[in-house]
Amino acid sequence: MTAPETTAAPTPSPAPTAAALALGDDALVLSHRLGEWAGHAPVLEEEVALANIALDLLGQARLLLSMAGDEDDLAYLREERAFRNLQLVEQENGDFAHTIVRQLYFSTYQHLLYAELAAGAGPFAPLAAKAVKEVAYHRDHAEQWALRLGDGTAESHERTRRASEALWRFTGEMFQPVEGVDVDWKGMEAAWLASVGEVLRRATLTVPEGPRTGAWAAGAGRQGLHTESFGRMLAEMQHLHRSHPGASW
Amino acid sequence: MVTLTPLETELFALAGSVPDPELPVLTLHELGVLRAVHVRDADSVEVELTPTYTGCPAIEAMSLDIERVLQEHGVREVTVRTVLAPAWSTDDITAEGRRKLREFGIAPPRLAAAAGPVAVRLGPTRTLDPAAEAVLCPHCGSADTELLSRFSSTACKALRRCLDCREPFDHFKEL
């Protein structure tokens, strides 16, 4: 893939590479995870919805990674430890409830982050102003499904409860400040807790009580430390490109 | 306000007449994605295009189509630049574009709803928001329609169903 030359007017200052990588890797990795649902989603409409959300995220990833270097080299030729994404987005899809809760946690965060970036004048403002409107639909999709599953059958409720607790420990990392991203992290965290808490309560679930980060995991993804399944995901994502260097169609 | 030369006006109209690769009933002008045409010198032209969605794969086909049309018109060198700001909105679709969408069986986006999705109350199977302007069925014009899925054949559309004529239809979502 080759992105068309992208610029924004007025020309902003160059994006800090570390920040572009962190935000770009979040989008790329979650896009790949959602793409894994293709052919497996519970109903056709969700197959299409998840693929469309993945496509939005891939578009963000291409623009962000292009700010940091060559998008293909960055996506396909980096080793696991060079990725700067949150551990939350690399978590396996699990069942549909697990994917929806991951979407709820992440899209609420991303919506708050992009809204702040869009309101500023930094290098990410043009992209954020565009993407925040798309992410609003991702968040809405996740919220409506969280309500339906949580306040659904005993089975769907139990699966959603399990997912909300299993993924909780990956949510603290989202608010570790990223160098070059000028936002109010503390304020964003409070807004995230209020927003997600409200959805969980309306979904008849309780806000998990466990820690939002493990001592072993604090800031880990942003420092290149990833969980076990990430290496397998990368192997699948990168093997075609690495097996056929320079191939095109 | 930038004044266009007669040549730029002509090339802008040519580039704007290119059909959208995804929705060929619309031209790029009607979709509102063509931002500017600058004539650099005798046979070198720069075109500014903005994507509808960040990940819209059609942008590359649009760029190639614009290059082809302008080159056929004798422009030797065409550069298509993608610009992000100001972000495209469905309000940029022209009135003629909306009419064509409806005729094509796609409910056009409602105007001035750029704030994104509206929070709605959820019933067992239907999503109804009494406060929002109704999405009219493009087939029979009924206002009694329901949301089936927030994402349809492409990210920019939602799938709905008319409760009067029972036909499913795509709705170009407000962005």
List keywords for this structure.
heterodimer; A: 249 residues; mainly alpha; Ferritin; 61% helix; B: 175 residues; alpha/beta; GMP Synthetase, Chain A, domain 3; 2 domains; four-stranded mixed β-sheet; three-stranded mixed β-sheet; 4 helices; 9 strands; Ferritin-like (chain A)
Task: Record the SSE blueprint.
The complex is a heterodimer of chains A (249) and B (175).
Chain A: E1 6-7, H1 17-35, H2 44-68, H3 71-76, H4 87-90, H5 96-119, H6 125-150, H7 154-166, H8 185-202, H9 228-243
Chain B: H1 6-16, H2 28-31, E1 34-41, E2 44-49, H3 58-72, E3 77-83, H4 95-103, E4 106-107, E5 121-122, E6 127-128, E7 145-149, E8 157-162, E9 168-172
Parallel strand pairs in B: 2-3, 4-9
Antiparallel strand pairs in B: 1-2, 5-6, 7-8, 8-9
Pfam family, one (chain B): Zn_ribbon_PaaD
Domain PaaD zinc beta ribbon (chain B): 124-173
Protein name (chain B): Phenylacetate-CoA oxygenase subunit PaaJ
**Mind telling me the CATH superfamily name of chain A?**
Ferritin, core subunit, four-helix bundle
The ordered string of helix (H) and strand (E) elements of chain B is HHEEHEHEEEEEE
Largest sheet of chain B: 4 strands, mixed
Return the average pLDDT of chain B rounded to an integer: 87
Helix content of chain A: 55-70%
Uncertain residue ranges of chain A: 7-11
First-residue to last-residue Cα separation of chain B: 26 Å
CATH topology of chain A: Ferritin
Strand adjacency order, main sheet of chain B: 4-9-8-7
With helices defined by DSSP (H or I, 4 residues minimum), what is the helix count of chain B? 4
Describe the global form of chain A: globular
Structural class based on helices, strands and sheet pairing of chain A? mainly alpha
Please provide the ordered H/E string of secondary-structure elements of chain A.
EHHHHHHHHH
- How would you classify the quaternary structure? heterodimer
Mean pLDDT of chain A: 92
Number of domains of chain B: 2
Largest contact between chains: A-B, 37 and 39 residues
Q: Major β-sheet of chain A, in short? A: none
Helix content of chain B: 10-25%
Radius of gyration of chain A: 18 Å
The stretches of 5 or more residues of chain B where confidence is low (pLDDT under 50) are 121-127
Protein name (chain A): Phenylacetic acid degradation protein
Organism (chain A): Streptomyces canus
InterPro entries (chain A): Aromatic_CoA_ox/epox, Ferritin-like, Ferritin-like_SF, PaaA_PaaC, PaaC
Organism (chain B): Streptomyces canus
